[in-house]
Design goal:
The chain has 320 residues and is mostly beta strands. It has two domains: 2-143, 2-Layer Sandwich (PmbA/TldD fold), CATH 3.30.2290.10; 151-319, no CATH class. It has helices at 55-66, 132-143, 160-171, 286-289; strands at 2-17, 20-35, 38-43, 74-91, 94-111, 116-124, 145-146, 151-158, 182-186, 204-205, 214-215, 224-225, 230-234, 246-251, 256-257, 261-270, 273-282, 290-300, 306-319. The protein has a six-stranded antiparallel sheet with strand order 3-2-1-4-5-6, with helices on one face. The radius of gyration is 21 Å and the shape is globular. It starts with a strand and ends with a strand.
Amino acid sequence: MIEVYEKRGASVRIERSGRATSTIVAREHGRATRERGRFIAESLGERPLPLAPDVAGVAEAARRISSLDSGRVSIERMTVTAGSAEQTITADGSTRTWFDDVARLHLSLVNCERALRVAIDLGASRVDELRVGIADEIAEALGNACAPQASFNGLVELAPSVSAPLWLFVARHRAMFEGSRLQLTQSTHPSWPFDGAGRRIEHLPLTDVAPSSLFRPSFRVAPAPAWFHIRASLRGVVRPRRTARARVVAMLTPFRMTRVAVTANVLAVSGSAAFAMTLEIPRETFASSITRISRRAVWFPLEAGVWGSDTLVNGASLTS
């Protein structure tokens, strides 16, 4: 079988590194062919997409985000992107065509005084829909960072920007929550209902069977099976929200597994102060320690997409 995929796209991005800023408008037309295990990608450039990217919207978003660069917080790196793409795939005598609109923010913030760095990735279908309030919360915490307290034990709240990478991590270690109330599913997103082969993404529980949807980040990359728009929920009665002693707002290092815990270095807030601390959730009680997951969710562009929510974890610890 021969499969031919074509993508025509137009995008604008504003990049900032330190104080230097550049604006790049790009149009691309590419083709990828798969035949008998061979994958061939080529740039064509003969039929650019006749759409004007949202240059003004990206510029306004970049100005808005640049306001975070003040006081103890500096922007190390920033990329704001918006674009549209027409995608077509032909195989077995049939052709499917679909369109995507995408906006992205990649931001690296530093507090040089405390030697702390936070990376933020946000995504939406339009640049004015980017949830930049998340960056505001993180920047405020980073600016207020001080010497950590001894520890916080008990009930800890994870912000959506922290629970999203946690669910992605748990998706790779699903045996940890088998038989528990914690449930991960492949969900949907109204702006991106199709996978990299133009097939509609189905709402499915994550299982040990390889996902049937294909993720194609670029026409230059062969598509690979992936779970899309991963979302976490708890079976049974939703418990009322309780007040946590600390709120974890950002990741300083990725989640990793030790012999006894799921752990990461994080930025946590308690009152008006913020601290760089180590979050640990015991492996033995991991699934039962997730006591509440808010139904209000934010989508993050992690791999093929993850929904993050305010999440309460009981029995976690934050240590210096």
